Structures are given as structure tokens and as C-alpha cells.
Amino acid sequence: MIAISLDDDRKALDAMVAKNGLPWPQLYFGKRFDNELAVLYNIQKTPTNHVLDRQGRIVAKDVREGEIAAAIEKALAATPR
């Protein structure tokens, strides 16, 4: 799991990550919605999430919090390594 930050303030992002104890990587580009990954995956709103298969294809969008682990497991099981 990774997060793609759409923040424009790195210090605010770092403070939020520390406050919430987020263990996954936070990718920060400082370009808000114009960063390469937001453009590639057509991110139009926050918060949002996308589950990708091993080839980087979107297999689910806006998965509910309690269903994320199952969606990731399903995506990984469906695509060969």
C-alpha cells in the first residue's frame, strides 16, 4: 500500500503522517492534482483509493475501509507474478 499525497505543503503532510502513525509510504510531488500518478490514474477528488493488480491496472476504486484488505488479496490472487 502506498499513498499519493496531493498536498502542496510537505510539512503539513509530514505532521499528519506522524500524528496518525501511517506506516505506508507517502509519495509527495508537491504538484497537487498535476503529479504524474494523479494524472495517470485520473484522480479527480480526495480522498480516493484505487486497488491495482500486479500489472498496475485498476481493479477497484473507492473501496470501503473494511473491504480494502480483501480487495487487495483478490487483486493479487487474480494476476500471476
Question: What does this protein look like?
Answer:
The chain has 81 residues and is α+β, with helices and mostly antiparallel strands. It has two domains: 1-44, no CATH class; 49-81, no CATH class. The protein is built from three helices and four strands; from the N terminus they run E-H-E-H-E-E-H. The chain has helices spanning 10-20, 36-40, 68-78; strands at 3-5, 26-28, 50-52, 58-61. The protein has a two-stranded parallel sheet with strand order 1-2. Strands 3-4 form a two-stranded antiparallel ribbon. The two termini are 17 Å apart.
Short précis:
With 81 residues, this protein is an alpha+beta fold.
Which properties best describe this structure?
single chain, two-stranded parallel sheet, 81 residues, alpha+beta, two-stranded antiparallel sheet, 2 domains
- Stretches where pLDDT falls below 50 for ≥5 residues? none
Characterize the biggest β-sheet.
2 strands, parallel
- The portion of residues assigned to helices is 25-40%
Distance between the termini: 17 Å
Number of strands: 4
What is the average per-residue confidence, as pLDDT, rounded to a whole number? Answer: 88
Strand order of the largest sheet: 1-2
Kindly report the oligomeric state of this protein: single chain
Number of domains: 2
Radius of gyration: 14 Å
Structural class: alpha+beta
Order of helices and strands: EHEHEEH
Shape: globular
